[in-house]
Structures are given as C-alpha cells and as structure tokens.
Description:
Strand order of the largest sheet: 4-5-6-7
Shape: flat
Number of strands: 14
Amino acid sequence: xxxxxxxxxxxxxxxxxxxxxxxxxxxxxxxxxxxxxxxxxxxxxxxxxxxxxxxxxxxxxxxxxxxxxxxxxxxxxxxxxxxxxxxxxxxxxxxxxxxxxxxxxxxxxxxxxxxxxxxxxxxxxxxxxxxxxxxxxxxxxxxxxxxxxxxxxxxxxxxxxxxxxxxxxxxxxxxxxxxxxxxxxxxxxxxxxxxxxxxxxxxxxxxxxxxxxxxxxxxxxxxxxxxxxxxxxxxxxxxxxxxxxxxxxxxxxxxxxxxxxxxxxxxxxxxxxxxxxxxxxxxxxxxxxxxxxxxxxxxxxxxxxxxxxxxxxxxxxxxxxxxxxxxxxxxxxxxxxxxxxxxxxxxxxxxxxxxxxxxxxx
Length: 362
C-alpha cells in the first residue's frame, strides 16, 4: 500500500508538467494564452517580439504579455551546481542558440504546411491546364481536317473580281492611334509642383556642416536586422525609408514587404498580396507602393495613430497590373498623387492615387 501511494504521488507530480506548443518540450515556466495554448515564457515572449504581438497559431488575434496566464507546476526544477563565470556565459549562449533553433523549427513547420498547400494548388492547376490543352489539341486537329476538305473545293472556284469599294472600306475601318497624353488637370498639378521645387533647388546652398568624405568613411551601422523575412525564402530584394520617420520598408523573396520601426526595433506591418517576390518599393509619409515580379504594383495608405498611441497601420488602396512582364520599378511623384510603374518589357504606367479613399481601382 505504501509503495502504491508513492507511485500515485509521482504520477500526480508528472501529470502537472506542461509541454510547450512551440518547442514540444517540458516547460520550466509555463504560461497559457487566451486561445488555450501553453508555452514556455521566454520562447513566447521572443516570438511575440518577432510577430508584432500576434498569436502564433491564430494570426488574426492579438496576444500581449499581459494576456499570458502563469501556470504552476509541481515538478521541482533541478538546481545545477555552481560553475565558473566563463562556463555560465557559455551556457547562456547555448541556451539562446537552443531557443533560436526551436523558434526556427516552428517557422519551418509552418512554412512546410504553406508549401504543401501551394503544391496541392499547383498540382490542381496543372491538371486543369493539361485537360484544357488536350481539348484544344482535339479542336485544332478537327479544324485542320475540315480545312483539308474545304481547300480542294476552293481551288475549283474562280477567284472573285476586285471591287472598287475595297479601298474605301479599308479607310473606314482604319483605327486611330491611341492617345497616351496626360490630362491637362493632372499636367497643371505636376507643373505647379515642379515650379515650387525648382525655386527651392536653385536657392539651396551647401550646408556648412555637410559631411565630407573622411567623415562618411567613419560611419558604422547603427542597427542590423537579419530575420525580417521568412526563413524558407530569405533575402531582401529592395529597401527604402519613409521620410521624417524611423520606418523602413523592405521587400523580399517571400512575396511580402515588411515595415520595420527603427525606434522600437519591431516589425509594425507586413504588406502581402503579391504572388511573386517583391522587386521594388517606394514610400512617402502617407503612401507606400510595392512592385513585384508578378507584374503588379500595390498601394497602401499609411495611417499614423493619435498622440496618445504611437502605433501605425497600413490600409490597402488598390493595385495596377503592367501587361507583358515583371515590375521593374515603382516611383511616387513629388505631388504624392501619382505613381509611376515601369515594367521589364519597357512599358510605363502612369496612375492617379486617391489617398483619401480606400476603394479599389483609383
């Protein structure tokens, strides 16, 4: 009976040990989220910093440190023996590397699921394309067979005499070239802006504290961030800074443009919607434009919060497609009302943007 009580006590003690949803290991300081998931405190705090306070398993929910509920475990932690300072520092480094590896494995699992979904969709589209091609080949063969039967009959038929009205018909159906001129109202706005900027440029003198070459050569990086984009498709293809702010926009191979706040050193927004890598970005205080290899450019309005709140949000305004190639570059006109999009085949699209409206097609 005494042995049975000891075993029951041990089983009860082990039953209160919690497993982290991110790493799959036993938690030493377990916490629970409102969605019901259990995490290791240090891992979930690191993940929240990278994801801008977003629930790892429910991206549409916001999760902060204040919402985490601490749990108690009967499992007594084993106190390691005292070690020399150098060994302690080495253990700290190993612990950080271990935590980073666990978070990277979690991202890899999510990337694997996303890749599986994309692969299944691609296979479905490929199967549909094969069926369409087979049907078109059959229709082409049938058309060739009918044409071969009609050709001998046309060879025996005398050619019709030319009609005098043939020239007049060609003149009537002749299409006029499409006009690519910019409207007078838009042109007047741009000319007025050009005149204002030209006056300031002519009167602008070189500042006395203008940095020289020796000073610039001593500049060093103030901040480095290497994990802005997804680990399965790493790399930043383009970069721009938002004027008069600490915001930086980075386009990557993961089809997403990430907005990074240098003041708080956190990611404040992820602009998605492209089906291929983001190749170019441009930004002003009120507008962000992204161009992609899929041949489209997307516009987002920058919404700065009130003085009581230091946050910032980004609203999708609309998009434009450049037919015939990938987007090679995007540029916002100094007026802030127009966007120029260039394609890889030499086509340039000039768009008017209505920042005050959030409806598509502006």
